[in-house]
Amino acid sequence: MKPDRKTAAGLFVLALLAVLPPIFIWTGNPFYVDLATRLVILAIAATSLNLILGYGGMISFGHAAYVGLGAYAVGIPAYHELYGGFDAIASFSGSFQIPLAVAVCALFALVTGAICLRTKGVYFIMITMAFAQMVYYLFVSIEEYGADDGLVIDVRSELPGINLDRPLQLYYLAFVSLVLAIVIVRTIVNSRFGMVIQGAKGNDTRMKTMGFNTYIYRLTAYVISGAMAGYAGALLGNFTTFISPEMMDWTRSGELMFMVILGGAATTFGPLMGAAAFIVIEEVLSHVTIYWHLPFGLMLILVVLYVRGGIMGLIEGRWGRRR
Amino acid sequence: MKRTLTALVATAMMAVPATAAEIKIGFVTTLTTGAAVIGNDMKKAVELALDHLGGKAGDHTLTVIFGDDQFAPETGKQVTDKLVKQDNVDFVAGYIWSHVLLASRKSVLDAGKFLISANAGPSALAGKLCHENFFSTSWQNDQTPMAMGEVLNQRGVKSLYVMAPNYAAGKDMVAGVERTFKGEIVGKDLTKWGADAQLDFSAELAKAKASGADGLLVFYPGAAGGAFIKQYHQAGLKDILPLYTVFTVDALSLPRLQAAGLDSVIGSFTTQHWDPTLDNAANRRFVADFKAKYGSYPSFYAAQAYDAINLIASAVEAVDGDMSDKDAVRAALMAADYESVRGPYTYNTNHFPIQNFYLREVVVDDEGNWTTKVAGLVYENMKDPYYEECPLK
Amino acid sequence: MDTALFVIQLLNGLQLGLLLFLVASGLTLIFGILDFVNLAHGALYMLGAFICATLTMWTGSFVLSVILSLPVVGAIGFAIERLVARSLYTRDHLDQVLATFGLILVLDTLAHLIWGPEGMAIPLPAWLDGQIAVTETLVIPTYRLLIIATGLATAGGLFWLVNYTRLGMLIRAGASNRTMVAALGINIQLLFSLVFALGAVLAGLAGMLVAPITEASIGMGNNIIITAFVVIIVGGIGSMKGAFIAALMIGLIDTLGRSFLDDIFKLFMSTAAAETSAPAVSAMLIYIIMAAVLAVRPQGLFPPKVR
Question: What biological-process terms (Gene Ontology) are attached (chain B) (predicted)?
Answer without folding.
Answer: amino acid transport
